C-alpha cells in the first residue's frame, strides 16, 4: 500500500475568489478507455472536502480531471452562451504513488492554467 494521495482546488481568477460549487470528475485512463474514479463539487474554499484519491489508494498510471468551467461561469452570469471554455480536461501521470499530487486549476471564462502543486 502507498502513502500517496491526490488533491485539487479551483480558483476563479476572473473574480479573484475560490471557485465554489464547480463539478470535478476524476477518471483513470487505461488504453483508449477510462473509468470514473470520483465525481465531486468544490466547497466554499474551492477545494474538495476529501482527497480525490485518499491516502494509501493512489496508483501509478494515467489520469484525467474534468473541470466543469462553462457550467460554473454560466451559473455566475460571467460567461457567454455557448461558453468559450466548457469542460476543461487535464491529463496527467502518476509516477510516484507514494507522493502527494496536487493538481490545481486557475480559471476564467476565457483562460486557464494548472501546475503540479504541493
Automatic annotation (TrEMBL):
Domain annotation Transthyretin/hydroxyisourate hydrolase: ranges: 6-117
Binding locations of substrate: 9, 47, 115
PROSITE patterns for this protein: TRANSTHYRETIN_1
Q: Does the keyword Hydrolase apply?
A: yes
| InterPro entries on file | Hydroxyisourate_hydrolase (IPR014306), Thyroxine_BS (IPR023418), Transthyretin/HIU_hydrolase (IPR000895), Transthyretin/HIU_hydrolase_d (IPR023416), Transthyretin/HIU_hydrolase_sf (IPR036817)
Q: Which GO terms describe its biological process?
A: purine nucleobase metabolic process
The kind of enzyme this is, by top-level EC class, is hydrolase
Under which EC number(s) is this enzyme classified?
A: 3.5.2.17
What domain of life is recorded for the organism? Bacteria
The GO molecular function terms of this record are: hydroxyisourate hydrolase activity
Q: Which UniProt keywords apply?
A: Hydrolase, Purine metabolism
| Substrates-to-products reaction catalysed | 5-hydroxyisourate + H2O = 5-hydroxy-2-oxo-4-ureido-2,5-dihydro-1H-imidazole-5-carboxylate + H(+)
Which family, according to UniProt?
Answer: Belongs to the transthyretin family. 5-hydroxyisourate hydrolase subfamily.
Functionally, this protein is described as follows:
Catalyzes the hydrolysis of 5-hydroxyisourate (HIU) to 2-oxo-4-hydroxy-4-carboxy-5-ureidoimidazoline (OHCU).
Q: How does it assemble?
A: Homotetramer.
Q: What name has this protein been given in UniProt?
A: 5-hydroxyisourate hydrolase
In which organism is this protein found?
Rubrobacter radiotolerans
Taxonomy-wise, where does this protein's organism fall, top ranks first? Bacteria, Bacillati, Actinomycetota, Rubrobacteria, Rubrobacterales
* Name of the gene this protein is made from: uraH
